[in-house]
Amino acid sequence: MRHTNLAAEPAEYTSAREELRQAEIELMRQRERVADLRRTLPPGPVVDDYEFEEGPADLDAGDEPVRTVRLGELFTGPGRDLVIYHLMYGKRQTEPCPMCTMWIDGFNGVARHVEQNADFAVVAAAGLPDLRAYARHRQWTNLRLLSAGTSTFKYDLGSEDADGNQDSTVSVFTRDSSGAVRHFYSAHPRMADDIDQRGIDLLSPVWHLLDLTPRGRGDWFAALDY
Description:
alpha/beta
């Protein structure tokens, strides 16, 4: 199968491109199998109705008043799921994570589309004023931003260790017919000894665009300026 109408493609290139196409097809089929395994997970454990701190919905309205909101209150209606991204910021992570920042920049752009099907929020260990100040700098105007405050939410979900070191994580929650909130799924960058950083790559199209190029991701961090 040809992908272009370009003339004079070398036979070596055509053969290698077909081998790659077959590998891409198998990868897609495997991704579909993995997605099906994820969707059909049995009900997870009931979790605490954690408390978070939240400021005004309008970032430009300042940081007051601060209100307490519970995990169960982040669901905006029955039959909806809740996705929470754990931002690496706060406690031992004194500066916001550049990789998390890139991901959340993207979430800010697509949040309204995601929220057609699921509720979405960003939680950090940082205090609310610091979190909101950084959000204003990044213009995260479409996101629900929460500070974990004194709750054990991030520790319990594995995005914080006992010393306060932070990690990027994505967690999904459901709510059963009794109103109890259940943990459905969490994923972390470190999946295995040989997969140290790519465990939640699917959250960002940036990696996939760069992986299409001969150089790949290269020294991505060297170009960051946040």
